[in-house]
Amino acid sequence: MSRLEVLKTYKIYIGGQFPRTESGRYYQIQDGKGKVIGNICLSSKKDVRNAVSAARKAFGGWAERSAFNRSQILYRIAEMLEGRRDQFINELMIQGASKVNAEKEIDLAIDRTVYYAGWCDKYQQLLSSVNPVSSAHFNFSVVEPTGVVSIIADENSSLIGMVSLILPAIAGGNTCVVLASETLPLCSITFAEVLNTSDLPAGVVNIVTGKKAELIEPMGNHMDVNATVYSGSNADEIKKIKELAVQNVKRVKTYNKKWISDESQDLYLIADLQEVKTTWHPIENIGGATSSY
Amino acid sequence: MAKKTDKKLSGWDFSPSPEGTSHIALKDKYDLFIDGKWVKPSSGKYFDSINPSNEEKISSVAHANQADVDKAVKAARKAYNGAWGKMSGKERGKYIYRIARMMQEKARELAVIETLDGGKPIRESRDIDIPLACNHFFYYAGWADKLDYAFPNRKVESLGVAGQIIPWNFPLLMAAWKIAPALAAGNTVVLKPAESTSLTALKLAEIIEESGLPAGVVNIVTGFGDTGAAIVNHPDVDKVAFTGSTDVGKIIQKAISGTDKKATLELGGKSANIILEDAPIDQAVEGIVNGIFFNQGHVCCAGSRLFVQESVAEVVINKLKQRLDSLYVGNPLDKNTDIGAINSKEQLQTIKKYIKIGQEEGAEMYQSPCSIPTKGYFCPPTLFTNVAQSSVIVQEEIFGPVLTIQTFRTVDEVIQKANNTPFGLAAGVWTDKGSRIFNLTTKLRAGVVWANTYNKFDPTSPFGGYKESGFGREGGLHGLEAYVKLS
Amino acid sequence: MAAFLLSFSYVFLSLILLKMPMSKLKPFSSDFDPLRHESPSVDKVGVEERVARIQTRSIKNESKIQGLKMVLNMIDLTTLEGKDTPGKVKQMCYKAMHLHDAHPGLPTTAAVCVYPSMVSVAKEAVKGSDVKIASVSTAFPSGQAPMSVKLDDTRFAVDCGADEIDMVISRGKFLSGEYQFVFDEIAAIKEACGKARLKVILETGELVTLDNVRKASDIAIHAGADFIKTSTGKVQPAATMQVTYTMLMAIKDHFDRTGVMIGMKPAGGISTAKAALHYLVMVKETLGDAWLSNEWFRFGASSLANDVLMQIIKMETGVYQSSDYFSID
How far apart are CA B465 and CA B452, in angstroms? Predict the structure, then answer.
């Protein structure tokens, strides 16, 4: 007699917890043959709101963590991903990927995590400057994370499209609320499980699943979100996100990249979610030109 | 506290010392500068440019409409596809250097016009605005042939035609902030100055004409909001750069939401200036004065919210009031004037509205007892104490010589209050303790933080805001990013 | 009863011990105590900016003439050389009273400033005029002498008729942190001055930082200085606008706290009319017009007077002047 498989409930990820959507609603996704793969949370506006609150709460602590520590945590995520490699391959294949492509995708996701782990304590040096002002002041510009970022993940990718946006955001000290691919959501929740076992503080990454048509709006117009990131090419969605951003002058970054490529990772994706802060301080110049040193 | 000494005891006062105006050349009427030529506005309409210190007309300025803007954008596109686009960075840089030099040669004339047209004290236009504007061109000139070093591992290209809209508070300086990096990166420009302060931008157009810069690389179209809208909405504009109010910034952000236009917005602010008990108090008082009364408070990064630690509040406020009394308000052309004219009648009304609100909110007002001219738009330097974080005058940008003063007890408290605003342009911190400075400058969510100083600007120093104060940086290496495409 | 007396006298004694130096000399002093490191810090760059802004003030026409005459009347015409003789001093005193007789209506200088040994000569020379006699003392300029010598030096000058004493502080002691010593020394000299007004020279060129200048100013003021003065003129840099500004702010704070006015004397290195006018602007914009008289503000200078005179004549004739037409005593 064959063993009965235990099915996974795909829940959303908010503030380090895995609640069901507060709305109680769900939607079903199917594989190519029309077989139901899972019941996915159909998150509501309120879930997004809760996720933003969690992200805001986590922001100060995450941004102020030492860069080295952020790097350690990202590397830990890579370790956890590696341990779940087969699970991701399985999920990607359930969602229609070939084995070769599934392996490529998870391997790239793991390696990309290591890549951004390395950036955590380096991008500052490349993006900052000491500015030679004419007056008796020391003047320098450093980058700081923009804040809470809402990420609308790439629709055509279950894992790499989402991971490629989350990593530069959190490597740079931001916290985020992610809307997973509507049609390929499985890996997003498994990825959340990885994050939850990786020393990543609760609330740094929050992931919701649901309908873009419903959730772009709360993701885009929440007044406590500082930037919105979008991956894809849907002109209507992009226009809508840009319009929603106006109310609090959100930064909007839209990408139309082939994420499953080694090229699609770089310093400038981190830079896109950084603010430049310039600091001035007088220099007491005793002796001035007459001092020899 | 001891009484103030009677100033009339010996009564030594400064005689009027007006800057001469005989050496400036202004036309009665200015046309639009498009494609290297001065062209009449297609509507035939002109508007008056008024001297806000005496309400007299200085000159007539063309009002550009959509057709004129279209002409300007076409000229810019033609130049971009032609001579300018094909020119090497080295040659571009030399043109920018040449413009910078010619501005320096005419610096005094530009300063006088800036003061006549905008109302700012000649001391500021002469010592700050104009030199900084020249230096901005010098700084970016040198970048033109070094762009590959600015963005490691990336190919740098220009964007195309930049549409630029600038405010009335630093007319020539803002023109420089916009035009210099745009040209250095290889773009062409259509720039609209603010309607109340078009003249120095038009003088700059004359300099550009004289410099031999290829026709169409820089086009100056004067006008009102409709002219600006025509630039923003023009389909062949690749980049929009705007400095001005947050309200208009939002309109622009929305207007271009369905396009691929790149944008930088430098918007409003309500910046906190924080005085801790161990601050160098007398220099802090100067910093407060410079923070809010520089350019009549028409400064987006003005330190308009003063926070003073309770243990020194009485001393600081007393010193501040006395210092206020020693400021000269009046004829902007007088070399001794500290506070000039409010830029326009409308702005004066706005400021007066907020002063009234402050009084109605129950705040305690102190105004310098200075005499102000009967003609022209003037406002005495004004302090409000006994205000709360929730007061309207504490929350909204007034853009005038009006300071609100709040007290605080602990560093944590003041950081929270300072950040408790939709804006994030600038902040000031005054303390003698280094570790405390770094704590504050790190935690304040603002694009520029001045520690033990305030309102300092330099071409090499990036400027721009967090949150609703806008995005993108102007100045320095970071300012180049706004005008390039990386691949 | 005995216990009561004992405890009473204990409290009384400790009060005296604690408060004596200050309460004795300045009964109106507040609780501000510069000996306990309470002087506010000074940011040099901020001071430089403030001074630069003062220097942009444009003094023209009537205000310039008025200002220049005020400058003349604030000068302590000075000779402090090893080679000073009665002859030299007498000639300088004559100059102090007759700055430029070709031009009537000019004031005299405020004072002449000489070594103690020249006080009696100078006193005789200026008899009948308003010109005061200032004498340096306390082993000027280094101040490296025992207290007894400094007291004798001071009493000698006062006995010879000095109206004002310009003492030097012990900079070595100050720099090694012995602020109480500096304070006590000033207080003792003040006592020795009797009716003569005491100017305390900080020798700011040796104190180096503006924080030190501020602290020394506060100590001098609290120890009983009637004036604080920048320099001996023997050390470079001597008076600067930055240093003077810092000292003016110490005077200002003292006045705001106590209502007591203290005078200010920048000395050394001020040789042009333009520079002198900048100093007056600075006084006006910090302390106010009440300080704009030679009772509260002086210039210690030897060559300033002629440049001011040349400017005044130029203003009135419209013709630039030559130094050949102005006596050099």
Answer: 20
